[in-house]
Model the fold of this input.
Amino acid sequence: MAMDGMDMMDDTDTSQESKVESRMSKVAGHRSKVESQRSEAPGLRVGCGFDAHRLVAGRPLVLGGVTIPYQRGLEGHSDADVLIHALCDAILGAIGAGDIGRHFPDTDPRYKGISSLVLLQRVVELAHEQGWRLVNADVTVIMQAPKIAPYVPAMIARLSEVLSPGAAINIKGKTTEGMGFTGTGEGAAAMAVALLEQRNRRKPRTGRRGIQARS
Ligand code: CDP
Ligand code: ZN
Done:
């Protein structure tokens, strides 16, 4: 029956059919081009980090690797550098390597009082080993006092010593206008976002160049 049906098709039907087939193959061609572009998309990963520590008397206040003169400091197993801890988590998140607690457990005596710059250096090394480099990071420190703005250039200089060469870093301080644990001075928090790119990755061919090559 089907064969009969086919046999009965006139020239118009055949040309319609070939038009449909030609369109379908164009769509398939376009799809495979889109898929191949997708697989050649630049290797970029984004990660976010958050941390919070108590502000207590009798501890130095270390933020971004810089000791800031203040009557209280952050409490923790390491130097409790909340800024660096959030940044480490953002980088680890981007490379899919969990979090800082997994790599440097606070029950391990080796990390007692350690400078968080050392932890950041190890995190960056891990990213490099896995084929990633930091493009940029943006960090917000949330605390009522002291003002961190005057120390930001020194922090950026310190962090740049251990971050991927050429990585751009931005740091800002923010209060919560007296609200919550950061507002009362009970503690400080930090949030970070980091963008990483795959190292030595072949540049993707753009769609425009592909079209020109075909014509
Ligand atoms: O004015 P807005 O509510 O956006 O910010 P704020 O929390 O009142 O902080 C005002 C400015 O103080 C910020 O833009 C920072 O430059 C600075 N700041 C700081 O350096 N260190 C802090 N711990 C908090 C704020
Ligand atoms: Zn921490």
Observations:
- The first strand starts at residue 44 and ends at 57.
- Residues 143, 147-149, 173-175 surround cytidine-5'-diphosphate (ligand 1) (CB under 6 Å).
